[in-house]
Amino acid sequence: MHDPRPADDDDHRAWLTALRTPGLGPGGLRQWLDRGDGDIHAALAQLRRDGAGLDSAALAWLEHPDEARLAQDLAWLAEPGHRLLRCTDADFPPQLEHIPQPPAVLFVAGDASLLLHPQVAIVGARAASASGMAHARAFARTLAEAGFTITSGMADGIDGAAHVAALDAGAKTLAVIGTGPDRVYPRKHHALARRLVEHGALVSEFPPGTAARADHFPRRNRIISGLALGVLVVEAGLRSGSLITARLAAEQGREVFALPGSIHNPLASGCHRLIRDGARLVECAAEIVELLAPAARSLGLELAARLGGEEVGTVTTATAADADYRRLLSALGHEPATMDELVQRTELSAAALSSMLLMLELDGRIERRSGNAYQVMPTSLRA
Question: In whole angstroms, what is the distance from residue 71 CA to residue 75 CA?
Fold first, then answer.
């Protein structure tokens, strides 16, 4: 159902009209799109002609949509760096196609290509402890350096700490928000939102002008977990919204990770419950890197086949030309080398090597062998 044509104002207007139809929702919109063979104009015409089951408000909107509202939406989309990413677009994230109740569109401010990169979601308590914030920053920084895009919800506490750590490391991060893409919630995060748009992305399934509502945040959580290969919960009480994200991740077949904490810390109780229920207890980011590397590689291959180009979200040739990477590639030879051997040969730390090895593995330059050993792929044996 992919539409190769770039969207123009007429297409955008049709999508926005359908999207704003009261009571239709993303599931209903996708059903009508299927009936129209992926053509939004055909779907909208059928809606107007055969909209059985729609209430009077929906029928009234379809007959006479609010032109001023649509004009404001189109004005937002006309701004540089803004995009309406449609489920019929070839670069709509394939991860989201396989989750329950996938969104029909995503409003993106910033770099929409980040949605195709291998992602790890970091979530947790809004009223996080100092140690929790420090853990969030450390994990976000290491995972970002390993090549993962850091995904979260721009909330207070753990979310914000993860975003800031990735940005401060010069890495990419995206926020899935529970408001329209033109709104910032909480308001204190205006500066963070600007940094995300400039160096990452803000993502929402809600159209411009949508205010924060309590029921929007559980809805956006399914997108956070759906985009990610795994979800890390840093701190969470027993009633934390982060547990909703973790549950959704498990239902979507994603890996769920949790940091243990003191039995006397109420913000650790949610993580302990997740661990009892089957989440993976992790103590360092390298454990997450090692576990998610094969899934990241598979995602890159799927996207390369879908988009007809090179793998998405892999290490660039400029990275491979970096002095540390040249040293590592020189230390790797025809025979498999273990992590301890590589530490001795390169004089780099095990943590740094873990990140570099993941990026080279994702790029297809090296392969992992049994016994946690690594070997250069034959095509990488070049000067």
Answer: 6
Residues 253 and 131 placed together within one structural domain of the fold: yes
To 10 degrees, what angle do helices 350-362 and 285-307 make? 10
DSSP H or E run through 110: strand 105-110
Q: Write down which residue in 246, 273, 289 finishes a domain.
A: 289
> What residue numbers bound the domain in which 7 lies?
1-78
Question: What's the pLDDT tens digit per position in 266-300?
Answer: 999 999 999 999 999 999 998 999 899 888 877 77
Angle (CA) 143-128-180 rounded to 5° is 75
- Of 108, 88, 90, 84, nearest to 12 (Cα)? 84
Determine which helix (DSSP H) or strand (DSSP E) holds 152, and give its type and residue range. Answer: strand 149-152
Instruction: Write out the two tokens for 288.
Output: 């997450």
Same domain, 132 and 210: yes
In tens, the pLDDT along 329-361 reads 888 877 888 888 898 898 887 656 766 777 677
Compute the distance between CA of residue 129 and CA of residue 355 in angstroms, rounded to an integer.
Answer: 27
How many structural domains does the chain have?
Answer: 3
Q: Is residue 64 part of a domain?
A: yes
